[in-house]
């Protein structure tokens, strides 16, 4: 059986790299990033995004992550991946293959303190094409709104 998380990058070689294609890089293919400064201290933001409520929002219902590199996860909707990096109160980096996708992407969530506020970023690499990038931009903007709402409603 083939590993569903094994990246096959042949599709990126057929997509020409042009400097006028926003979101297309030579090193990580198509990518998208969404960031927002939230009016909450970093520990509160980290606790949410790394805990069950936050993971359910940005990774999928049922997601649990071990901070161990290589640890596997599966969400209730069938997304699979593994942990590529986990730095407490700094960043989480995982691979992700949602159900129905024929390729693996990499998602990174970072937090950085800005006084008593926090800069929260979601970044996704190895998207298939410009259309998928546009779709994922909408997805991550929606996720950011949901995370901000969860932070605002948490004491």
TrEMBL record:
One Pfam family linked to the record: AHSA1
Domain of life (superkingdom): Bacteria
Disordered: region residues: 1-25
Composition skew (Basic and acidic residues), residue ranges: 1-12
Activator of Hsp90 ATPase homologue 1/2-like C-terminal domain boundaries: 40-149
Transmembrane stretches, start-end: none
Family, similarity comment: Belongs to the AHA1 family.
Name of the protein in its database record: Activator of Hsp90 ATPase homolog 1-like protein
């Amino acid at each position: 059986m083939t590993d569903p998380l094994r990246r096959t990058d042949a599709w990126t070689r057929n997509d020409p790299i042009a400097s006028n294609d926003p979101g297309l890089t030579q090193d990580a293919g198509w990518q998208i990033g969404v960031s927002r400064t939230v009016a909450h201290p970093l520990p509160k933001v980290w606790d949410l995004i790394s805990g069950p409520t936050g993971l359910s929002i940005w990774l999928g219902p049922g997601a649990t992550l071990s901070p161990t590199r290589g640890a596997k996860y599966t969400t209730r909707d069938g997304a699979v991946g593994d942990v590529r990096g986990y730095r407490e109160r700094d960043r989480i980096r995982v691979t992700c293959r949602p159900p129905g996708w024929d390729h693996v992407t990499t998602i990174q969530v970072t937090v950085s303190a800005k006084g008593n506020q926090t800069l929260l970023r979601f970044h996704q690499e190895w998207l298939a094409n410009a259309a998928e990038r546009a779709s994922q931009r909408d997805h991550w903007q929606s996720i950011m709104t949901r995370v901000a709402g969860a932070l605002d409603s948490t004491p």
